[in-house]
Design goal:
- The complex is a heterodimer of chains A (354) and B (338).
- In chain A, helix 2 packs across helix 12, helix 3 crosses helix 4 and helix 8 packs antiparallel against helix 10.
- Chain A has one domain.
- The relative contact order of chain A is 0.12.
- Chain A is α+β, with helices and mostly antiparallel strands.
- Chain A is built from 14 helices and eleven strands.
- Chain A has an eleven-stranded antiparallel sheet with strand order 1-11-10-9-8-7-6-5-4-3-2.
- The two termini of chain A are 27 Å apart.
- By secondary structure, chain B is an alpha+beta fold.
- Chain B has a seven-stranded antiparallel sheet, with helices on one face. Chain B has a four-stranded mixed sheet with strand order 8-9-11-10, with helices on both faces.
- About 7% of the residues of chain B have low confidence.
- The chains are: A alpha+beta (354), B alpha+beta (338).
- Chains A and B meet through helix 2, helix 3, strand 4, helix 4 and helix 10 of A and helix 2, helix 3, helix 4 and helix 8 of B.
């Protein structure tokens, strides 16, 4: 924990977006996207990102997003084509679907690296650009090799894969000519996943127990025979599964997400400065629950309010602990010239949420 | 007009420099301790108003100003004759937001009731034969492996049913290409369905539960109706589109909720499809002097079997999302067919 004097110096991120304001931007964006058969959606995305970036303040200055809608449109067209190809091939035959899946896996790391470059290069703070400088080879190692390793070890190595991906992202990110660094070892990720596993077991036990309490007669009826008993057992398992699934998503997703954000940002540094993150799982859980109900009850109209609520909480709980003067960051002169021409043309945004 | 306080960044260093902005004709004057710029407003990029977020004035050389005095800055822009863009004006008013809600809801409804079926129909008519054959083969392959057993019906009986059905006159000239295959239904019991490539699967249990062959012919005509209208293919295409839209809309809020609306939205389509297939079967049966009631009878018997298997009131899970729903309603339609 930071000491008192350090906390007074910690620069918190602040978010000034408002639900009602963003709602109007969001709904007008949707309507215009509809009227233009989806083409406007790229411009809509730029407006949305600009709203979130410019409303986020660190040390009295806002972030900004400069992305080119055409590059986003390019990425969207590629994504739709890939999805369509996959849908069609999976319909035709399982073998073709496997081939399509393998092909997708092969180009995915390349797409992600491009997308990371795009997103960071077009983000700025105080007039200095961010950049992502990870290369394709590292992209394949971290986004393909490690996930494959996790897969063949029945997810035993999933924490390692997760750590490698975060490390790859954070150690290859730059702000101006200052590099980010990442110090969380895989051990911390293994500990986190072990706790997650314990909670999953607990939730499933609770779901099974809860179902048994709610429908006690279903299992204990001695008159049940053959098919009827099987049907009841199936119903019981289904209820357990549905309850467990819902609880996993509503309870564990916010918990895990809070812990990951804290773990990742508490071990991220920018030059001599370090970040702090103190998101509380319990608060995040209430926000998730409220957003889920709000969206459900308003048939989706609450979505922009939900996005704002979540962003405000998450951002307010990340801060930068300066080890020196924040005014001393400098732009990277070389990058400013090299990343324009060919390299920028090579970048496009691909919607992948991390 | 008083100069407006702003923060200037030169694009090279992260150091903020307090400056004052003022208008001089059609030029913007930036004045600070170490900054003195005088630029034509037309050459600057000025960000749109986004609530409490600062307005950003960007210079061609990468420098920029952040302005947080919104009212004064808007006054300056107005004085310089710079107006907000169309989208900004749309976003600023609740009236337009409301109009956007109405438009979105209207398009969503129209798209769901008209556009989606039309799109699925259009796509279904353009998919290559090879793809359809693949879809049919792979589905039957999976069912054969996990659900079905080979049919125990004698060859002669199978050939006789197929021949009788093929001799019937179809209601339209372009009868879809089809082939009838028989299987022991195993856990799915008495059932029949059509695959996209024209394969009609009939289970031994269905054949056994029919009291007359006319009932089986009725079921086959119903399945041929599904094929004629490309129902399974359209279902698949619509399901893909609906799933994609719902998933995209809900985003990562909660993928758990995505499956439910998709299933509910699909249920309505399948009810419509059953009715269409029943109408086709009615036409075909009447054309061949078979009373459509034959189909009604076997439907009623299958429903009764299902009720007795799951107790009175039926299986609670089937009530909501049944793909062959409202059997009673369908039976009435068939019995009243003229």
């Amino acid at each position: 924990m930071p000491t008192d004097t350090a906390t007074t110096h910690t620069q918190r991120l602040a978010f000034s977006g408002k639900g009602a304001e963003y709602f109007r931007i969001w709904i007008v964006n949707i309507a215009l996207s509809i009227l233009t058969v989806g083409i406007y959606s790229a411009w809509a995305k730029v407006r949305r990102l600009k709203y979130f970036y410019l409303n986020t303040t660190l040390a009295d200055s806002s972030f900004d997003f400069h992305g080119d809608p055409l590059a986003i449109l390019k990425g969207r067209i590629i994504a739709v084509l890939l999805l369509l190809a996959y849908q069609l091939s999976s319909a035709a035959s399982p073998r073709l679907a496997m081939a399509a899946m393998a092909l997708l896996a092969l180009i995915f790391p390349w797409l992600i690296v491009r997308s990371l470059r795009f997103r960071l290069y077009y983000s700025s703070h105080r007039g200095l650009r961010f950049s992502f400088r990870g290369n394709n080879r590292q992209g394949y190692v971290n986004f393909l090799l490690y996930p494959l390793l996790a897969l063949v070890t029945a997810y035993l190595l999933a924490p390692l894969a997760h750590q490698r991906i975060k490390r790859f992202q954070h150690t290859n990110s730059w702000y101006g000519n200052t590099r980010f660094d990442f110090s969380a070892g895989s051990g911390r990720f293994f500990t986190l996943y072990l706790k997650l596993l314990g909670l999953i077991v607990l939730v499933i036990a609770l779901a099974a127990g809860g179902t048994a309490v709610l429908f006690p007669f279903e299992l204990a009826n001695p008159a049940d025979q053959g098919d009827a008993a099987n049907a009841r057992l199936a119903a019981y398992l289904l209820a357990t599964l549905a309850g467990g699934y819902l609880m996993l998503f509503l309870l564990l997703a916010p918990w895990f997400s809070a812990r990951v954000q804290n773990l990742v940002w508490n071990h991220t540094t920018l030059g001599p400065h370090r970040f702090v993150s103190d998101v509380q799982a319990r608060r995040l859980l209430w926000i998730y629950l409220g957003n889920f109900l709000g969206i459900l009850l308003t048939l989706g109209l609450y979505k922009p309010f939900a996005d704002i609520r979540l962003a405000r909480y998450r951002l307010a709980h990340i801060g930068l602990v300066p080890a020196g003067d924040l005014d001393e960051f400098m732009a990277d002169r070389q990058q400013a010239t090299s990343a324009t021409g060919e390299e920028a043309a090579d970048m496009f945004d691909f919607d992948i949420s991390f | 007009m008083n100069p407006i306080p702003a923060t200037y960044f030169d694009g090279v260093s992260a150091r903020p420099q307090p400056v004052r902005l003022s208008l001089h004709g059609d030029r913007l004057i930036v004045d600070g301790e170490q900054v003195a710029r005088d630029e034509p407003l037309a050459g600057l990029e000025i960000s749109e108003p986004l609530g409490a977020a600062p307005r950003v004035v960007r210079f061609a050389d990468g420098a920029h100003c952040e302005v947080r005095e919104h009212a004064a800055f808007e006054q300056l822009l107005r004085a310089a004759g710079i107006e907000d863009g169309l989208v900004v004006r749309l976003q600023a008013r609740w009236l337009w937001a409301l109009a956007a809600v109405v438009l979105t809801v209207a398009v969503a409804f129209a798209g769901y009731y008209r556009g989606l079926p039309a799109a699925a129909d259009w796509i279904a008519g353009r998919l290559p034969e090879r793809l359809l054959a693949g879809m049919g083969e792979s589905t039957l392959g999976i069912l054969d492996e996990h659900v079905f057993e080979p049919s125990a019906l004698p060859d002669a009986r199978r050939a006789q049913l197929t021949r009788t059905f093929d001799r019937l006159t179809p209601p339209a000239d372009d009868t879809p290409a089809h082939r009838i295959v028989f299987r022991d239904g195993g856990p799915i019991g008495a059932n029949a369905f059509a695959l996209p490539d024209g394969t009609i699967v009939v289970t031994d249990q269905l054949v056994a539960s029919a009291e007359q062959d006319e009932e089986i012919l009725g079921v086959l005509a119903h399945e041929l109706g599904h094929l004629e209208r490309r129902h399974s293919l359209r279902m698949f295409i619509q399901g893909s589109i609906v799933g994609f839209m719902v998933g995209w809309y809900l985003g990562d809020v909660s993928s758990v909720a995505a499956g439910l609306p998709t299933a509910l939205l699909q249920a309505r389509y399948s009810r419509g499809f059953e009715r269409e297939a029943d109408d086709y079967a009615t036409q075909m049966l009447q054309l061949n002097d078979i009373p459509p009631a034959a189909l009604a009878h076997i439907l009623a018997r299958m429903q009764a079997e299902m009720d007795s298997a799951h107790g009175p009131g039926g299986d609670p899970f089937r009530g909501y999302l049944n793909s062959h729903p409202a059997t009673g309603e369908r039976i009435n339609r068939l019995l009243n067919a003229r």
